[in-house]
Write a sequence for this structure.
C-alpha cells in the first residue's frame, strides 16, 4: 500500500525516528564522498504551482544524488489549467513516475490528487502545511542540540503553514512548542484542537514573543507575509513589528539557543541582520538539511512501496 505525506499526521513516531536516522546517515555518506544510487531507474515528478528555490532544488538534487531522475512540471504547463480533472492527471502520472511532490495553494487539491494516485504523493508546500520543511528542521535541531526531546522550541511570527506543521509534529512526537503570534494571526483553531486531542506534547500560544522565547533552546521565525499574501505586506509590517527576532529578543532565550529561519529571509523585518548572520544562527545548515531529509523521504516512500509489490 502506498504511503503519502500530505501532513505530518500521516507519519508515526517511528516514521519520524527512521527519517531522522536515515537522513543523518545519507548526509554523512555524502560528506565522505560515498555515492548512493538506491533510487536508480526511478523518477520523481515535481508539480509546482508556487515558485521555489530551496524546495525545488533540494528535491531535484536529492533524486539525482540517489541515482534517480527528477522531472519538473510547472503547473501552468499542465492540462490542469485547462480544467482537466485532478483525478485524471493523478491516474496518468501514476503510470509515468514513481512518486510526485506537489507545491500548490490548496490542501484539498493535494488530497484530491493523492486520492486518485497509485504512487506516493508528497506535500512540497500548501497554504495550510509544509511537512517536509519541519522534518528537516527537526533533523537540524537534533544535530545542533543532540536531540529534539527536552527542547523548548519558540515560534515567533505568523501562525502560517510552517507553524501548522510544527503543531502536527508536536502532537506526534511530543514537543515543548510555544507559538507567539500577533492577535488575529494565530494558527488555525481546528489544528490546535486536533493536537490537543492527541494529548502528546506541550503546546502554548501567546501574543507575547518575550514569553515564548524565555529560556528557549530554539527560536524559529518565518516571513510575515507568505506567498499569496503580498497585498497584506504593508499592514503586516506594522502589526508584526514587535515580533522581530533581534538581539534583544534572543537574549531572553538560553545562552546557547539556536536561531532558525526556513528562508527566504527579509532582513530587518522578521529577523535582524545581526541575528541572521550571527553565531547562533543555523539557517544555512538548516537549508542544506532539506536535501538530505528529502533523500530519506524519497527512499522511504519509493523503496518501501517497491518491496510491497
Amino acid at each position: 500500500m502506498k504511503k503519502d505525506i500530505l501532513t505530518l499526521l500521516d507519519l508515526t513516531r517511528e516514521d519520524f525516528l527512521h527519517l531522522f536516522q536515515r537522513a543523518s546517515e545519507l548526509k554523512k555518506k555524502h560528506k565522505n564522498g560515498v555515492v548512493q544510487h538506491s533510487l536508480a531507474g526511478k523518477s520523481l515528478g515535481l508539480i509546482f504551482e508556487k515558485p521555489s528555490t530551496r524546495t525545488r532544488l533540494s528535491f531535484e538534487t536529492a533524486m539525482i544524488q540517489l541515482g534517480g531522475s527528477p522531472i519538473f512540471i510547472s503547473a501552468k504547463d499542465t492540462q490542469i489549467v485547462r480544467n482537466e480533472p485532478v483525478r485524471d492527471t493523478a491516474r496518468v502520472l501514476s503510470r509515468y513516475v514513481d512518486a510526485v511532490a506537489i507545491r500548490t495553494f490548496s490542501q484539498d487539491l493535494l488530497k484530491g490528487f493523492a486520492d486518485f494516485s497509485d504512487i506516493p504523493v508528497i506535500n512540497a508546500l500548501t497554504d495550510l502545511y509544509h511537512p517536509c520543511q519541519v522534518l528537516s528542521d527537526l533533523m537540524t535541531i537534533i544535530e545542533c542540540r543532540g536531540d529534539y526531546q527536552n527542547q523548548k522550541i519558540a515560534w515567533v511570527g505568523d501562525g502560517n503553514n510552517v507553524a501548522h506543521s510544527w503543531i502536527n509534529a508536536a502532537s506526534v512526537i511530543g514537543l515543548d512548542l510555544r507559538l507567539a503570534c500577533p492577535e488575529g494571526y494565530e494558527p488555525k483553531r481546528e489544528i490546535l484542537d486536533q493536537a490537543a486531542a492527541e494529548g502528546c506534547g506541550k503546546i502554548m500560544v501567546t501574543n507575547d514573543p518575550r514569553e515564548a522565547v524565555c529560556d528557549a533552546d530554539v527560536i524559529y521565525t518565518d516571513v510575515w507575509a507568505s506567498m499569496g499574501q503580498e497585498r497584506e505586506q504593508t499592514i503586516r509590517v506594522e502589526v508584526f513589528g514587535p515580533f522581530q527576532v533581534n538581539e534583544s529578543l534572543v537574549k531572553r532565550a538560553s545562552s546557547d539557543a539556536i536561531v532558525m529561519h526556513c528562508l527566504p529571509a527579509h532582513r530587518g523585518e522578521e529577523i535582524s541582520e545581526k541575528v541572521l548572520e550571527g553565531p547562533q544562527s543555523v539557517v544555512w545548515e538548516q537549508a542544506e538539511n532539506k536535501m538530505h531529509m528529502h533523500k530519506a523521504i524519497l527512499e522511504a516512500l519509493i523503496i518501501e512501496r517497491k518491496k510491497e509489490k
Summary: The longest helix spans residues 283-308. The two ends are 8 Å apart (CA to CA). The chain has two domains: 8-129+287-308, 133-282. Residues 133-282 form a domain with the Rossmann fold fold (CATH 3.40.50.1370).
